[in-house]
Specification:
This protein is an alpha+beta fold. It is built from 9 helices and 9 strands. It is globular, with a radius of gyration of 18 Å.
């Protein structure tokens, strides 16, 4: 794609009459936080510094902040969230997670990395965003990817071109083409019927525009877990005015 976005290539293809199992990556990094003590959770893995979903050392990431108030005010968001609550899969959605994450809704642009790299990203991002000003974005309908099975996202799409890729290049980070906001989480594997319900809901809403805003607030988000629910710390980076 000319905009460099990779959502179509990484979209999960639901198969008819197939269960939807939680991914190993999700069971390691997220499930211990979503459902502490869950028997399917992976407490630790050799070579990874996770322990029950938390890092031994805080991680730094450059992220695009999404204002929760604006998202929750969107009629499309309210409609698709209500629709999800009415589907068969609703009993396996961790409904307590989105309210806990209101202040840390974000799409990761670079990271997680160690502090020194995070500081370098911050300095370069400040320079870039002071020139660029707010970046107009659209938040799309629900996305289920081909990895991290268990987390449901809202994908970010720049309105024109791909200035988010320009920002990644400016700070010396890898261009990902993937800027999705992790939002809903599953509490367990899905049966075939529950997976079909999730697929039908995704298919119904994925092409909608949930929110369109000028993204003006970025930051270095420092966390000890991938849900950013344990004492997250922000170093804010606000974009400058155009012109």
């Amino acid at each position: 794609m000319t905009d460099g976005l990779r959502y179509a290539a990484s979209r999960h293809r639901f198969a008819a009459d197939a269960v939807f199992g939680l991914g190993e990556d999700y069971r390691l990094a997220h499930l211990p936080l979503v459902v502490p003590g869950h028997p399917r959770a992976i407490s630790s893995v050799p070579g990874k510094d996770y322990r029950d979903g938390r890092y031994a050392t805080p991680r730094h990431a450059l992220v695009l902040h999404i204002p929760a108030d604006a998202l929750e005010a969107s009629p499309i968001y309210r409609a698709l969230d209500a629709d999800l609550r009415a589907r068969l899969v609703a009993s396996k959605i961790a409904w307590h997670i989105p309210p806990r994450r209101r202040s840390v809704l974000h799409a990761t642009l670079a990271g997680p990395v160690a502090e020194a790299t995070g500081r370098a990203y911050e300095a370069a991002a400040r320079t870039f965003l002071a020139r660029s000003g707010p970046i107009p974005i659209r938040l799309g309908g629900p996305f289920v990817g081909d990895r991290n099975h268990g987390r449901i996202y809202l994908p970010v799409r720049p309105v024109a071109g791909n200035p988010l890729a320009d920002l990644q290049r400016a700070i010396g980070a890898r261009e990902t083409g993937f800027y999705a906001v992790g939002h809903w989480c599953l509490t367990d594997d899905l049966t075939a019927a529950e997976a079909a319900a999730l697929a039908a809901w995704r298919d119904r809403w994925e092409n909608e525009t949930v929110l369109e805003i000028p993204a003006a607030r970025f930051g270095i988000l420092i966390t000890t877990d991938d849900q950013a629910i344990h004492s997250p710390v922000w170093r804010w980076i606000d974009s400058g005015a155009r012109g």
